[in-house]
Amino acid sequence: MNLSLRATFYLLFSLFVITSCSKSDDTAADYPVIGNRIMQEQDSAIRKYMADNNLELIQDFSGIYYKIEKPGDPGAFMTLNSIPTITYTRRNLKDSILDASFGSTDFDGRPLKDHIMGWQVGLRKIGKGGKIFLIIPSPLGFGNVAVGNIIPANSVLVCDMELVDFK
Q1: Which stretches of 22-70 are assigned E, i.e. beta strand?
Q2: pTM
């Protein structure tokens, strides 16, 4: 086998091995970094909201901004297959309430992996009993899809959340 053919074989084999590996959902997840125009525009609006409200938040590499208000149980973190029971309030950048749980909810037993990406990222940063404040750009929320008459398309979400429990 000549050198060029051997190098091509090893490259293709390496790519096959890398792309066929699966990741466990109980380790730190790899979240997509979305670098499009909407994210850039919304990032500017989020930074203005933070400045106007004197907020100091951390930006996750996924694109969400967050502040852990209460870390919760350091030995009780969810996986993507966990079913969270939470309380939450969801607003927009104008501080208009979009929806809220009005008490604890488990969304009819829906696992975390079936919630918006921003919640998947944020809720895995706190343990059971923890509280987190999130600002979620629309591509990590509901994107360009409206949720009935409640959440308009391309909405940046401002969420106060408490992880009451999970299964």
Answers
A1: 58-59, 65-70
A2: 0.79
